[in-house]
Amino acid sequence: MLDDVDRPALRWRESAAWFPVRRRGLGFRVFAFNRIVALLLTAYLAMHFAVISSLYLGEPAYDRLMTLFRSPPFLAFDVALILALVYHGLDGIRLVLVTLTVGTRHQEKIFWGLMAAGLVILLYATVRLFRI
Amino acid sequence: MSWRVRYQIFRKTDGAPSTFDTFTIEIRPDETVLDGIERIWAFQDRTLVFRHACHHASCGSCGVRVNGVETLPCVTAIQDVTADDGRVVVEPMRNFPLIRDLAVDVSPMFSRLREVGMPIVRGVEATDRQAMHRFENCIECGLCLSACPVAATSSQYLGPAILAAAERVVQEPRGASVPLILELVGGEHGAWQCRSTFECSAVCPSDVDPAEAIMALRARLIRERLRDLFRRGPARLQEEPHAR
Question: pTM score, two decimals?
């Protein structure tokens, strides 16, 4: 057996094996994208806590931030956030279904069906956001 | 009609850094990737180490990654992975200890298969020649383990082939202890580690569909847990006749 197969570089390459999606199936791509989205949502949550903490700076500071967040560029960011939440949540429903052996062999069709529903939710949410 | 194909083959020997060696060969498009590897070994580099035996997807010993995807090179035609004047990248399977070049040590997989009762090969009852007959589709090639992203990040994960085998035992115990198997697959490194990428089923050359087997195990484990909620006394996994 090769004695240096546990080198850190090789270990890192193996640990990152979940990421390269080239020539992989839909399930693998959805899984990798889901992980990335989860990381982004975690980062968003941290940012959200930071923004809420601005209340400590007083009401005017918080109001200024809220005004800024209602501008179109930030509303576009909100749309991206809803997209991430909808994608992550709906794919979670697919995972629950296949875990309960509901449509395991049709999991790709279930995914696309849920994504179609997600698109409707996203469009509705976008319209509502920009009408506020 | 022959094609000119460049093989880029992963090389690794003890103590040396890994490299990719390039070999150019003439090969017919309907020949297999393994035909090319054997030609390279026969005419260009006798030090190339790789595993193979049956040449018809029965033994499962030649599994490698071709252009990044796990496959049996003995049944993969050149025309399916490249074009004339194209290239084929051949690498060893992931998630197994590397022996050398394209050869990996698959013994960890067999050790774990033994933990779940080695259901793939079973002794035949009432036979006078004590032969071992194959009853299942799995050819123990290990491609599913190589393709699994969880096996890549957790060395203790049982993996798709083992979980599929365990599901087979649960389905048809033939005297094996189902509660013990369920305890093993319901544990920290068992069925719940699966991330449902279905890549194991995608690369399986033998239609075992390990992903579906893992989902069936999970459903069975959920049923057992729900029963435990309404059961008096200490929780325990029960024998249950399995019907599909």
Answer: 0.81
